[in-house]
Amino acid sequence: MAKLSGQITVTAVGKIKTKHWRAAQDEYLKRLSRYTTIKLAEVKDAVGRGQPDQAAMAREGEALLKATANARRRIALTPTGKLMSSEAFARFARKEVEEYGRIAFLIGGPLGFAPDVLDQCDAQ
Fold this sequence. Notes:
The chain has one domain (7-120): Alpha/beta knot (3-Layer(aba) Sandwich), CATH 3.40.1280. The protein has 4 helices and 4 strands, in the order βαβαβαβα. It is of the alpha/beta class.
């Protein structure tokens, strides 16, 4: 399979702290890099920093939107979004990259996404 010319950015709130999950993440990104340019961007979580939950979500949302400003498509990965098999997700991601070039998958923090982030996403 030829490598796609676009770019996928996975932008997540917070960092994976557990060593074995970090290793799994790195392996998955390495495997995906054979098919397209892929990068991981992590933004600071704001929960538990002495501010109300809504303010924390808003702060995280601003960081997510700023980090994905150059994406032509933003796709929020949410528990209420469209459920797909791995194969269907691969087809979906390929189609998005072929059509839009630069896409971003957004992963929210423990409180989820601020409503304005979901409003600015093209899909869930």
